[in-house]
Design brief:
Layout (H helix, E strand, L loop, with lengths): L2 H4 L3 E5 L3 H11 L4 E5 L2 H11 L3 E5 L7 H11 L3 E6 L4 H9 L4 E4 L4 H12 L8 E5 L2 E4 L4 E4 L2 E3 L3 H12 L5 E2 H9 L6 H22 L7 E4 L3 E4 L6 E5 L1
Parallel strand pairs: 1-2, 1-3, 3-4, 4-5
Antiparallel strand pairs: 6-7, 6-13, 7-8, 8-9, 10-12, 11-12
Helix pairs in contact: 5-9, 7-8, 7-9, 8-9
């Protein structure tokens, strides 16, 4: 990614520790458009005006938690969220995943690690070849990162979009929960039994959002008992459009 292209990306840093905040802000501001906030209230105000593509969010804030703020922001836009935390237990990581976060950065971290993690996250919004997957009444547009069902846009989070897209491009093939964790989240977990429950939560969210459009639509995502999920539309409704 060139500097000129990178500067189009807006990043909001929400951190109350001045040493961490200033370090992250100065480093990222060399490449991206960056603003910062020190509490949840200010963060939401800046979020509405700035419209960032990525929020780097501290787990503990003076007036709220990263859990609540992550969920509130993703209700408003399909923003990517990376959580900063000094907590390293498997339980805390699972809680962060359940909040809908796209990545977890453990304190202390190096600037090189931060650079790589931000770059990886921003790949999700970068497109090279626009592609639209069409399954009957369901359209998954990689170029705009939008999903339409019966011509209505589903309000999916970036993580939900990535899960659905991954299943769709492997249409007809069963994907294990562990495979989804490793390929979509990009995480290696010590306790897969706990992490795999998070996959079920996000699949449930996708299904619920589809059902709100039309409860009678086909069940595109089917459960493979004891294993994972399969995207299995009717063969006659399946085509791939590449523009």
């Amino acid at each position: 990614m060139t500097i000129s292209a990178a500067q189009n990306y807006k990043i909001l840093v929400v951190e109350d520790d001045p040493s961490v905040r200033n370090l992250v802000y100065r480093f990222l501001n060399q490449t991206y458009q960056v603003k910062f906030a020190t509490d949840g209230k200010t963060a939401l105000e800046i979020f509405e005006e700035f419209n960032p593509v990525l929020v780097i969010l501290d787990w503990n804030l003076p007036d709220t938690t990263g859990y609540k703020l992550c969920q509130e922001m993703q209700k408003r836009t399909n923003v990517l969220v990376a959580i900063l935390s000094s907590r390293t237990s498997e339980e805390d990581k699972i809680k962060i995943m359940k909040a809908g976060a796209d990545d977890f950065i453990c304190k202390p971290f190096s600037l090189k690690e931060l650079e790589v993690r931000v770059e990886v996250l921003l790949r999700r919004v970068r497109t090279v070849t626009p592609r639209c997957l069409v399954f009957g009444q369901l359209e998954i547009d990689l170029a705009s990162r939008e999903v339409r069902l019966k011509d209505q846009i589903l309000a999916l989070t970036p993580l939900e979009f990535d899960i659905l897209y991954y299943l769709a491009i492997h249409s007809g093939k069963a994907c294990s929960r562990r495979q989804l964790i490793e390929k979509v989240w990009g995480w290696q977990c010590n306790n897969y039994a706990s992490a795999e429950r998070v996959v079920d939560v996000h699949i449930g969210h996708i299904r619920t959002k589809m059902a709100k459009v039309d409860a009678a639509v086909p069940n595109f995502i089917q459960t493979v008992r004891g294993y994972g999920y399969i995207f299995n539309p009717s063969p006659r409704n399946h085509k791939v459009v590449v523009n």
